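Predict the holo structure. Ligand: adenosine-5'-diphosphate.
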Amino acid sequence: MVVGVLVELSSKNIDKIFDYKVPKELEKKIKIGIRIIVPFGRMTLQGFVLEIKNTTSKYDLKEIIEVSDEDIILTDELLELGQKISKLTLSTLISAYQTMLPKALKAKKGRVINKKYDTYYKLKKDISAEKLTAKQWEIVNIILEKNEILRSEALKISTSALNTLIKNDLLKEEKKEHYRLTYNEKLLPKKELTDEQKQAVALVNLKKYDTYLLHGVTGSGKTEVYMELIEKALENGKSSILLVPEISLTPQMVSRFQQRFGSKIAAIHSALSDGEKYDEWRRISRNEAMIVIGARSAIFAPLKNIGVIIIDEEHSDSYKQSDMNPRYNAKDIAFIRGKTHNCPVILGSATPSLETYARALKDVYKLLSLPHRVNGKELPFVNIVDMNKEMKSSKGHFSNVLLTAIKKRLEKKEQIILLLNRRGYSSFVSCKNCGFTFKCPNCDITLTYHKSSNTLRCHYCGYGEKTYEICPKCGEKALSNLGVGTQRIEEELQKYFQDSKILRMDYDTTSKKGMHEKMIKAFKNHEYDILLGTQIVAKGLDFEDVTLVGVINADTGLNIPDFRSSENTFSLLSQVAGRSGRSSKAGEVIIQTFNPKHYSIMYTKTHDYIGFYNEEMQIRRTLKYPPYYYLVNIKVSGKDEKEILNEALKIKRALLRNLKNTIILGPSSATIFKLNNIYRYNLILKYKKEDNLLAVLEKIQNHYKSKVKIKIDIDINPSQMI
Ligand code: ADP
Ligand code: ZN
């Protein structure tokens, strides 16, 4: 027997299938989609069996060394999916397969994750004639009742009794796999759906592939709709996938699903150990878990009979893998798998991405709406505070309006969430006095500060100008890099409210396992009055007693050099505002900003998604951004600045020769231009329709694949432009 093997070595040069001979004694174990160990040059590598050839080879082929799996790791569906991903993202096939599997299955040599086992005892023969002691009977009776007894349970009764039973050959031992995680089976009754929710559920045809957009305001009960659809799929014997951004995959969210579906769920998130993830993955592949909840990579869950795929917070950029190959988007994978399984794909959001909403308006996606909060609760009142005025009277980061509002809630023993928008780069310049930032006249993108040349540059088109010392808007000498940490805000806040208990939640304080869960519980139990944090507090949380949400700095997000900065700001502010007044008490939101007239802030005040959409779409059309145009980002990087600039120019010329319907911007320096002595230039492609685009890009990539000094990264439909 000869097998075709893809080895785990991610280099564009050797991404192909090699033939190996199978020794007779291993032949029975060989299946397509399992992993094996093979010699490769002087190395020993793991690989996937992709082909079985029932020929004997004429050549002197090497033999495989060992078979790693009993069960198939890559099903036929996943094998094919990997090939599509590799084509669509211009990545190696092996990198696609590696991305699809949990880390434990990418095991490097010597680092194997063990399965855990429990030992059970059963009766070997009829024991009615045996003479047993009381303790021995106690053990045997449990077996008679339950068919088996767990070793640890028997030991609790009596070690010597158990040992005697074993010695007298009355028991047979059995090992059963023991999963590291357990799910509580105590289920709660489900909620009666509102009419709006019922209608949304009724409009989804679970029998065929279609994409739906569930557009529901915060607190409109989208999650309840998801659960109902999942339950219906389950009644048809089908499984489901629910993707949520890692950041909103909170213990709260998981426990809601557990209370409804018990151990049928598998929740995969970054707080799990590799072993736990491995166990969850195997529960899924054995059809023991039918409902998979997880972040981006859960879209690859090895489910067999999928009935519905749901992507919550579909606008989130976390669904795109941006930092490494393959640069895939989980939404695209959902569409592929939806077609394969002939099941609906549901995209849910209070603030859909412009691409998605545009498609819904064109009827490419079917639109489902939940325009009201559950039980007629009002959306919270939003108060915009102009920090240009406030900065004249207050010194710190808090306006008087916000301080007064906090004080009022503390007195009433209600709770407060404060958001510090930290997602900025220190590499933009902004006026501390009036909030002014410099923008590119061509691209409407915040200019990036380059220290070495003391210039401001646009990293889309390359436009540049000298930096100023004096703010061109207010005339103050107050230009600087912004950036303040949660810790400093916490200290400031504590000074104002000395008796209040503040809980700080950011990536630092939640990185330890279990911390996130503990903090959420503690806040829910009123052990704290104020929850202060970064984006992590904006999403998915549902606290009854939070009646005030404050945004300390709404503007940081606007200054990110990305054409989506307004969209992302509107969506973040709407999300965090949605944490307020979710229960019977009315909610309020206070947003501090230097740009009170900016449309992304104005439309947050009125909770007007459509208004925002219409205004933003005009800008996108004028400047030729998505959804009117598609984008590709080509990053050229290397140590020799001159050389890579030259190569980038060469690539641009090649693109211009071969692509007739594409606008090509750059080369321009990337936002982070120099990192670890590596210089990075970007080329940005804008196009509506360009038939041979993939072929041309692949050619360019192949041309550079063997070059060591220059690296090319191609990101098709990038989610971030940095
Ligand atoms: P969303 O995901 O749209 O923000 P959720 O599904 O979290 O909204 O629902 C908001 C709150 O309303 C939650 O506390 C949820 O338990 C509650 N809720 C949702 N649907 C119903 C319903 N039909 N009846 C009663 N309460 C509901
Ligand atoms: Zn520009």
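The pocket of zinc ion (ligand 2) is lined by residues 440, 442-443, 445, 458, 460-461, 463 (CB under 6 Å). The domain at 195-370 is CATH 3.40.50.300 (Rossmann fold).
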